[in-house]
Amino acid sequence: MQLLPSLRPILLGPAFLFCLAIGPTLAQIPDLKLGRVPTLAPLVKEVTPAVVNISVEGKIRQDNPLYQNPRSRDFADVPKQVERQVSATGSGVIVDAQRGYVMTANHVVEHADVAQIRTKDGRKFAARLVGRDPATDIALLQIDDPTDLRAIALGNSDALEVGDFVIAVGNPFGLGQTVTSGLVSALGRTGLGKQGYEDFIQTDAAINPGNSGGALISLRGELIGINTAIISPGGGNVGIGFAVPINMARRVMEQLVQSGRVDRGRIGVTLLDLDSPSDGRVQGARVADVSAGSPAERAGLRKGDIIVKANDMPVRSATQVRNLIGLTPVGQRVRLVFERDRALGNATVEVAPVAEERARVRSSG
């Protein structure tokens, strides 16, 4: 899988016309005396000023090939590693115009020493890195002197459904701002081996180099995902793209603003997906183990419990619960509903620091 994204046009069938007709006023169908023609132009004009191009420069250290040759080391003092100048381009989304916060993909800025942001109207701004989180591939930049910026409203990615129409905005191949469209193909995609915390929105949007960090937008004009990756054997779009849900990205952003990093905790459980229907349930997370003395044990969780809700949201998989716990700030609580012996129970578990949790496990033998 490649860390890059964008979207392709869709067939404008009756279902799409109906969606536009009942949707927000931003998505209108004008009468051009040639019949009613669908258009997303009003929506695009509203949201695209919030999507920016990002250029970064930095340095990376890599193994020196000359060092691998013993003869080279004999003739000169060859360093084991050498420093190389790198540059990269990508996309970003202004999420707070007053404070100048720009959300993007971590892999766009991971080697950045200098970052420059260019808005749709051609203005250029210097930016600094607030923080980044490789585990979710989310990073946050801040424009040094934010002036007359436009932000985009954050939506609720938990409310998405397969089949919802979306548009994507980014800077594919350095061509400049480009708008494409598609639909939500699947939700909760995991197991892609890209990052440690996976809960991707899958879209048939055309994802291409330079779209990384760009916006996935609902027809309500709200940001519902940050485009991040594609599956493509040949390096181009094949209609399988992925975005980080904005609810996940928002929780990461809150911690980056507060401390510049994401501090993850644990509650002391090992979770597994349901490998077979359990008492009629096909979705949920089975508790495979509970650490002695852990917050989970103190809250009453036991091995064999099936977690069916977390913070009032239905649980689809073990990954979903792990993501929620991993993105909940240390010291805050997670509300769980579990099934045990055909009866439902409730547990409120406080997220503990990883070091503290490991110390408890060691002390318990």
UniProtKB/TrEMBL annotation:
GO biological process, one term: protein quality control for misfolded or incompletely synthesized proteins
Protein name from the UniProt record: Serine protease do-like
SUPFAM superfamilies: PDZ domain-like, Trypsin-like serine proteases
Membership in a protein family: Belongs to the peptidase S1C family.
Record keywords, A-Z: Hydrolase, Protease, Serine protease
Gene Ontology CC terms, in alphabetical order: periplasmic space
Species for this entry: Bradyrhizobium oligotrophicum S58
Any one GO MF annotation of this record: serine-type endopeptidase activity
Entries under Pfam families matching the protein: PDZ_6, Trypsin_2
Coiled-coil annotated spans: none
Occurrences of domain PDZ (ranges): 256-342
